[in-house]
Amino acid sequence: MKYTKLGNSGLVVSRIALGCMNYGSKRWRPWMLEEDEARANFAYAIQHGVNFFDTSNIYSLGVSEQIVGRWVRELARREQVVIATKAGLPVSDGPNRAGVGRKHLIDSCEASLRRLRMDYVDLYQIHRLDLETPLEEMLGALDSLVRSGKVRYVGASSMAAWQFAKTLHTARAHGSHRPVAMQSHYNLVYREEEREMIPLCIDQGIGVTAWSPLARGFLTGNRERNGQTRDLRAADDTLAHDLYGEHDFDVLDAVKKVAADRGVSPAQVAVAWLLQAPGLTTPLIGADNVGQLAEAIAALEIKLSGEEVAALEAPYRRKAIAGHVQPTPASMMPGAASPTAALARESVKHSRRYMNRQFKPDS
Q: How many other C-beta atoms lie within 10 A of the C-beta of residue 323?
């Protein structure tokens, strides 16, 4: 395993992280790995030097956090691992059950700690901005969690680059602990973060982690041009079908060619490309089995040539922003009909579309 600092912070993380969205309850999504099924992946990851585990209170509505907590407590020493979780997306209906207001953030953090059965988390991230809550309130709540010892570092996830720049500026102006990490939608078939977000993070010393590094399985070849799917997740994952489509198969063809020439898997090529990408700290690998995790770790030894990188990047076509709700000029104009409220409602509507709203965890 190889390690690096998370941006300019003092936090050392493995260059392969275990993304834990797919560990949870099959009642939330049928392709989830439940607790006993997930143990082998955690054991293999820890045995091979992975120290960075990323989850969220929204993943199977907290069941993922329970699974992460159980296997990390059993298989590793707490001081040797970096546990990251997130809050902000709606965990249920009703007031104060979503967003980044002080009450919800502090309640969510305490609930996450109970599910993890841990005293603190190493990285607490805003899953999505709540556009109706002042940044000062959000940052003040995060700062209080750090000062209370419940959180070591704070971070954020997908948003417009100008919003993140404003967040960093506001934190500095108010003396709050500023985010040290940005979790971005980034892979070979979605590279829009290269335009503004990643350069901003490099400039400001912010670590960048990549969610959906294999495009939710697309870059492994789990879908065909004719619409056929090769596994349960590819058939059921509605978000993947919205994010990645027809033009992306040209990139997949390039990945397959480089992989065939090297005698490795397409997944390894896609991970190797991310590992050489400027500004990228670590991809969050959501492995379904030990074999997939082993492939990702082996990608650390693949050094792509300049010609291979160029061949992989050449078929890319510019896309609309995907993965978060991007504010539009019209929505930001003074006098617009409650622009922040409209954007906030759209963000919640977007996130709920991909959730199983009938699922209720057992505890």
A: 21
Give residue-wise pLDDT tens across range 85-97.
999 988 887 888 8
Place of tokens 């199977």: 60
Instruction: Dig out the tokens for 41 from the structure.
Output: 């992946």
CATH code of the domain containing 187: 3.20.20.100
pTM more than 0.90: yes
Share of the chain above pLDDT 90, in %: 76
Task: Identify the pLDDT of residue 223.
Answer: 86
H/E stretch holding 72 reads helix 63-75
Instruction: Give dist(CA 6, CA 11) in Å, integer.
Output: 6
In a domain, 62, yes or no: yes
pLDDT at residue number 339: 45
Q: Which domain holds residue 173?
A: 3-353
**Radius of gyration of the CA atoms of the chain, in A:** 19
Alpha helices in 263-334 (DSSP H): 266-276, 290-298, 306-313, 329-332
Per-residue b/e over 283-316, b at no fewer than 16 CB within 10 Å? Answer: bbbbbbeeebbebbbbbbebebeeebeebbeebb
Distances in Å between the Cα of 98 and the Cα atoms of 24, 113, 155, 340, 343 are 20, 17, 17, 15, 14
Task: Tell me the backbone φ, ψ of residue 208, rounded to 5 degrees.
Answer: -120, 125
| Catalytic choice (3, 23, 44, 59) | 59
| DSSP secondary structure letter of residue 190 | B
Concatenate the DSSP letters of all residues of 112-179 into one string. HHHHHT-S-EEEEEESS--TTS-HHHHHHHHHHHHHTTSEEEEEEES--HHHHHHHHHHHHHHTPPPP
- 316 in active site: no
Q: Tell me the β-bridge partners of 123.
A: 84, 153
Whether 135 and 167 have beta carbons less than 8 Å apart is answered as yes
Per the structure, the count of domains in the chain is 1
Q: How many C-beta atoms surround the C-beta of residue 279 within 10 A?
A: 20
Q: Which one, of 45, 13, 11, 48, lies nearest residue 281 by Cα?
A: 13
The answer to whether residue 231 is domain-embedded is yes
